Amino acid sequence: MRIVQADGREGVQVLMAVDDPVRGRMAAGVARFSPQTRHPIEGTSVHEAHETFFVLKGRLLVSTAEGEQAVAEGDFVYIAPGEEHWVANEWEHPAEVVWVLVGSTEV
Question: What residues pair up with 26 in beta bridges, in sequence order?
């Protein structure tokens, strides 16, 4: 078991990464979005891993090739490997998510 605490800073923070030839690869962390921010700032993100995130607080706009979808506190999001995407907080209050990448440690 390994326990790591977040430090409360803005942006994407990796809390744990595992690269084990037997057990596999994964990374996990938190991301905090101030109002009117976007990740990445320009363009899109794409990962070789399965990406999931759970919205702890606030609302976000998630964009993929399928379109844009607003998500809010309590929503769980899955993004397939290789799917280009971006996430933005277009609202007046901060948002926070817990994210996990499975199949890669690359963030």
Answer: 18, 102
Cis previous bond, 35, omega within 30: no
What is the DSSP-derived secondary structure letter of residue 45? B
**pLDDT tens digits for 44-95?**
999 889 999 999 999 999 999 999 999 999 999 999 999 999 999 999 999 9
Q: CA-CA distance, 64 to 25, in Å (whole number)?
A: 24
How big is the CA angle at 105 (ends 97 and 96), to the nearest 5 degrees? 10
The number of angstroms, rounded, from the C-alpha of 83 to the middle of its chain's C-alpha atoms is 13
Joined tokens for residue 11: 């942006």
Locate 107 and state its tokens: 């963030």
CA atoms within 13 Å, Cβ hemisphere of 43: 2
Measured CA to CA, the distance from residue 9 to residue 66 in angstroms comes to 31
Q: Report how far residue 19's alpha carbon sits from residue 12's, in angstroms, rounded to the nearest whole number.
A: 19
- 20 with 103: CB under 8 angstroms? no
